[in-house]
């Protein structure tokens, strides 16, 4: 699902992480940990094509990161769903219309199919009854559920979640973890950056750490 060989990651001319070798199998749930500024987001951005791969080789969901061009990125983003710390919902429209907007933007045309898909992803995150709500009428946990539903719209093979519980209280964080675990059980590979060691203890998975400019597996 993900393979990085001898990858070095730069922000402008600064070397952030060097010589990364990373292998993520289909169906894995992996954590990415490390202090603020250690490079977690930079690594995530490299994986979703926001930061070009300058050194080394790598692939994700069948896309060669070295050969990735601007025009390929929309196609890559259909095969990986991205979830952020701040939920990034459009506040001027309902939950349903947030999801409809993404489907239309990614080429869906058939109204009936779009309706079925929206209801299916809302059901997966237990938000089917809240499609008519505006994002600001929802709690943080509910907004994150909608953001996860949005990430699922195009049947991604993988979810990249960059501190998805960073803005949530401990109880809500656990609820969101249950949602992610459920999605993972259905076969979607997950890489989740987090600061939350309590969550890692409660939901143990292979953990990858960024520290001192390198990336390694924690055992
Ligand atoms: N757009 C940018 N331009 C220049 N430097 C950047 C940019 N974004 C991040 N950096 C630098 O890259 C380093 C790694 O940042 P990154 O955001 O990847 O860390 P992080 O581990 O995700 O931190 P956090 O946990 O705070 O999100 C930091 O030193 C940061 O200052």
From TrEMBL:
Gene3D superfamilies: P-loop containing nucleotide triphosphate hydrolases. GO terms for biological process: cell division. Pfam families: ABC_tran (PF00005). GO terms for molecular function: ATP binding. It comes from the Bacteria. Keywords: ATP-binding, Cell cycle, Cell division, Nucleotide-binding. Coiled coil: none annotated. PANTHER family: CELL DIVISION ATP-BINDING PROTEIN FTSE, IMPORT ATP-BINDING PROTEIN. This is Cell division ATP-binding protein FtsE. It comes from Namhaeicola litoreus.
């Amino acid at each position: 699902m993900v393979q990085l060989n001898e990858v070095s990651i730069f922000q402008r001319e600064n070397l952030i992480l060097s010589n990364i070798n990373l292998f993520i199998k289909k169906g894995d749930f992996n954590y990415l940990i490390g202090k603020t500024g250690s490079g977690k987001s930079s690594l995530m951005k490299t994986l979703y094509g926001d930061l070009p791969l300058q050194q080394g080789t790598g692939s994700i969901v069948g896309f060669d990161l070295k050969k990735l061009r601007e025009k390929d990125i929309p196609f890559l983003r259909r095969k990986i769903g991205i979830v952020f710390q701040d939920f990034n919902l459009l506040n001027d429209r309902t939950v349903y219309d947030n999801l409809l907007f993404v489907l239309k933007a990614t080429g869906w045309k058939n109204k009936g199919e779009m309706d079925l898909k929206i209801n299916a992803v809302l059901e997966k995150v237990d938000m089917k009854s809240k499609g008519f709500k505006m994002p600001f009428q929802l709690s943080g946990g509910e907004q994150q559920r909608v953001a996860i539903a949005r990430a699922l719209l195009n049947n991604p093979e993988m979810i990249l979640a960059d501190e998805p519980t960073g803005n949530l209280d401990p109880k809500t964080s656990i609820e969101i973890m249950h949602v992610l675990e459920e999605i993972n059980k259905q076969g979607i590979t997950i890489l989740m950056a987090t600061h939350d060691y309590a969550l890692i203890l409660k939901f143990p998975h292979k953990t990858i750490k960024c520290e001192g400019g390198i990336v390694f597996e924690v055992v």
